[in-house]
Amino acid sequence: MTYVTRPADHAGARPDKFYKTTLFRGDALLLGLNCLEPGQTQAVHDHADQDKFYFVIEGVGRFQVGDEWITAGAGELVWAPAGVVHGVTNDGETRLTLLVGIAPAP
User: Fold this and answer.
1) CA of 104: how far to CAs of 14, 21, 68, 78, 85, in Å?
2) Which of 9, 44, 65, 91 is deepest in the core (most CB within 10 A)?
3) What are the pLDDT tens digits along the chain (106 aa)?
4) Looking at the chain, which runs of residues are DSSP E strands?
5) Cα–Cα nearest to 66, from 52, 105, 21
6) In this predicted structure, what is the pLDDT of residue 1?
7) Rounded distance, CA 5 to CA 7, Å?
8) Beta strand pairing status for 77-80 and 51-58?
């Protein structure tokens, strides 16, 4: 098992929807990388019994968490408690790259 990874080595793009990949999955945690090109959206959804965070690696995103809208950029962390709806849109001009964690793992 590899215990160190560089998220940038796993970044990618898809023309039809945002790109995502799993970096690590264990019994208690899932870590992934989401890349949203300008105009792409992760639809609002929830995880009934899982907390989730988004750490912005690059770009700026507009996040919905519950009834709140939050703009967050590189170096900022957004979290959604279990059962709270959340989603994100890249309404900027460059790629939005997010380190995403879900616990416990799905």
Assistant:
1) 27, 17, 24, 17, 17
2) 65
3) 788 999 999 999 998 999 999 999 999 999 999 999 999 999 999 999 999 999 999 999 999 999 999 999 999 999 999 999 999 999 999 999 999 999 998 8
4) 19-25, 30-36, 41-45, 51-58, 60-65, 68-73, 77-80, 86-89, 96-103
5) 52
6) 72
7) 6
8) antiparallel
The 3-state DSSP class for residue 27 equals coil
Predicted structure pTM score: 0.94
**What are the phi and psi torsion angles at 28 (to 5°)?**
-115, -5
How far apart, in whole angstroms, are the C-alpha atoms of residue 28 and residue 99? 17
